Amino acid sequence: MALFDLPLAELREYRSASTAPDDFDAFWGKTLQEAREHDLDARFEPVDTGLSTVRVYDVTFAGFGGHPVKGWLRLPAGAAEPLPLVVEFIGYGGGRGLAHEKLLWASTGRAHFVMDTRGQGSAWGGGGGTPDPVGAAPAYPGFMTRGIDAPENYYYRRVFTDAVRAVEAARTHPLTDATRTAVIGESQGGGITLAVGALVPDLAAVAPDVPFLCDYPRAATVTDRHPYREIGLFLKTHRGRAADVLHTLSYFDGVHFAARGRAPALFSAALEDQTCPPSTVFAAFNAWAHEDKAIEVYDFNDHEGGGPFQEAHKLRWLRSYA
User: Fold this and answer.
1) DSSP assignment of 231-278, as one string?
2) Which residue in the list 38, 290, 303, 313 is annotated as catalytic?
3) pLDDT given for residue 238 in this prediction
4) What is the pTM of this model?
5) Which element (helix H / strand E) includes 217?
6) Is 1 a domain residue?
7) Domain tally for the chain?
8) Which position among 18, 187, 250, 279 bears the catalytic label?
């Protein structure tokens, strides 16, 4: 796929037309307050993986509604003092995978926490283990329109709340240093990272790669690739509901979270990315509130983005923060 979105010079100036609801902050403040009424109840159970350089813990904590959410905590073997913490969120359809996967960040001497995504984990990878016990009104298959009838019911309200609680849970382990916490993720994981970057006030660094869940008004019309296409296909059947749908989505738009970003950030975008069009990524990057921010651009890549090249860049970048 050749370049299909705005030229790079225009991307660097692009601003989303999406408008945050007046009660955006109140909505999220109430949501997190309600979640914290449930005991976090973070439990770390050692797993025998056969690995000699990394220790792995099977983690369960209380997320949205007190629902149990799974994760993995990986620590360098022999760690005795609190370590910088990297919390990672997963791409669309994937789960936390298997205990022996994702060893990079623990290999750098950091603690690494991977959150399972409720209801997902059956599309690729090693699977997941967190159900989503909440029902929803009629929706198009996938996750993008589940509960889209109202912000209070929307699927990503639960996921973003789980993610904030995941950071809180990981920080309770005695071998994690809460003052040196970074959050990272690709695609859907990048969109979740943006939300956490706004909702957790004391992060050391934020690194969203080719983030999903940004600039919904443009994303829903500029690409016909899933998952954004789920929104259009829902509206194809539910005619005349576009304004209501976009109102719900405005509470979950990465652009509005970015405007409340409180930590140094490293983004990445791919100019041939039809899944998360570069204009939607730049919309979030350009809105990111913290002045210490950078974006890596991959000219001839689709949604794979920078892949291992971006991974190497993050390894270098994160040394200054966590």
Assistant:
1) HHHHHHHSTT-HHHHHHHHGGG-HHHHHTT--S-EEEEEETT-SSS-H
2) 303
3) 96
4) 0.98
5) helix 216-222
6) no
7) 1
8) 187
The verdict on whether 303 is a catalytic residue reads yes
**Which residue among the candidates 162, 209, 273, 279 is catalytic per the annotation?**
273
Select from 76, 204, 230 the least CA-distant residue to 145: 230
In a domain, 116, yes or no: yes
Query: Does residue 224 have an active-site annotation?
Result: no
Mean pLDDT of the chain: 97
Q: Which helix (H) or strand (E) holds 313?
A: helix 308-318
Task: Kindly report the CATH number assigned to the domain that includes residue 111.
Answer: 3.40.50.1820
- 16, 287 in Cβ contact below 8 A? yes
Does 2 fall in a domain?
A: no
What pLDDT does residue 18 have? Answer: 93
* pLDDT at residue 1 tops 80: no
Which one, of 14, 106, 99, 85, lies nearest residue 50 by Cα?
99
Q: Which domain holds residue 281?
A: 8-318
Report d(CA 283, CA 260) in Å as an integer: 13
The length of the chain is 322
Say whether 299 is catalytic. no
For residue 217, being part of any structural domain is answered with yes
Helix (H, G, I), strand (E, B) or coil at 74: strand
CA distance 277 to 1: 12
Establish whether 154 is an annotated binding residue. no
Give the pLDDT confidence of 44-86 residue by residue, as tens digits: 999 999 999 999 999 999 999 999 999 999 999 999 999 999 9
